[in-house]
Backbone:
DNA sequence: ATCGTACTTGTACAAACGTACAAGTTGAGC
DNA sequence: GCTCAACTTGTACGTTTGTACAAGTACGAT
């Protein structure tokens, strides 16, 4: 009733194949998903283990405490976003219209609400727990760094703040993005200060 | 060892004075504080009761389920902010420089991080739990409504998004507000579209 | 082949949880 | 004064929690 050894592996009640690195990763991914669905505060060892299809003991073997597990999940989420950001950088560099392209990227980003929710989970968690701040900072600085060369440091920061606010609103309201309005707003912020 | 009846009230192990309305309010306030410190996901009946100085049973008497209790805390927080917004409206109406005044108000708002944290807790909670969305919407629409007459609906929404993003950043980074930079950004967004 | 370390896994346990409830207390209406 | 509904409170119960751990398995080094 417990493990149901398959007919393929006749009689020995096997342990699974060993691959510690893959387990760490699987746990981090599962943690990410649980955070997205239940929130940081309701993330538990057991929920993560079930999601990863691993026994409870595996979670504490690789991540001694719950905080470690959650940090690993959040870090994995930001690593994933960092990778997406490289894509953003390329597309923005090649785009004839920076504001329009940025709007389009935002629209695509908003398509996967689960991913977006994790970022904001990370923010409020970092606002409360200083240990998570480095992870949050790495994430928050990503886009401004990409935008700064083309837009200047100040405009880059302002545009990022605008996007964060717009995304937050869309997330809470479950509303569609007002693309033309956003493009226009970005253009205004791109206006040189001098 | 349990209640320690004071020497003042000699022998009867008294119940406290009855004031249901005050109890509801005290519980809502205590819930708000617990949410600000621990987050929605780690808010418990016992933590709220302890914070309010009331017995555990009082929480379930006034708020049958934990969700009710949390909703009451969040609603109380937004009610409080609505009251602050009236103040904002008056000051903005009287201000000679809208952008500068808005910056100053933001600076003052950021002084109480605990309050700010609750708003963002509400946002991520509402993003996950649709039952909280009306509360979140009431809050999110507050400032745009105030700004719209003076700035136009579009600029009002953009400025609010900008402020939300700036505030989020300051919250996560624990950094100071760049007041001149914010004022300049607001001015750009105030530029008429036509 | 064997040995030891690294990994796996099921189970155990005390603490904390949401919620239920019985017994007690109060004060307004009669 | 008596009554009854509203309120108060301590305690209890079954779950779920974080974490610990013993017993077992696999695999590189020897």
Residues:
């Amino acid at each position: 009733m417990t493990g149901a050894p398959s007919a393929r592996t006749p009689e020995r009640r096997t342990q699974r194949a060993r691959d510690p690195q893959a387990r760490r990763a699987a746990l981090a991914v599962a943690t990410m998903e649980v955070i997205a669905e239940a929130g940081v505060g309701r993330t538990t060892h057991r929920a993560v283990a079930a999601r990863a299809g691993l026994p409870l003991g595996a979670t504490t073997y690789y991540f001694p405490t719950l905080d470690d597990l959650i940090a690993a999940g959040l870090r994995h989420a930001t690593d994933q976003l960092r990778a997406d950001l490289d894509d953003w950088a390329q597309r923005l560099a090649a785009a004839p219209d920076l504001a329009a392209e940025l709007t389009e990227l935002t629209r695509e980003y908003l398509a996967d609400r689960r991913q977006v929710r994790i970022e904001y989970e990370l923010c409020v968690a970092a606002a409360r727990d200083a240990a998570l701040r480095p992870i949050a900072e790495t994430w928050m600085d990503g886009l401004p760094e990409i935008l700064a060369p083309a837009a200047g440091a100040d405009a880059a920061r302002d545009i990022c703040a605008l996007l964060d606010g717009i995304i937050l609103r869309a997330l809470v309201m479950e509303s569609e993005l007002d693309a033309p309005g956003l493009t226009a707003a970005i253009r205004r912020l791109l206006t040189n200060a001098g």
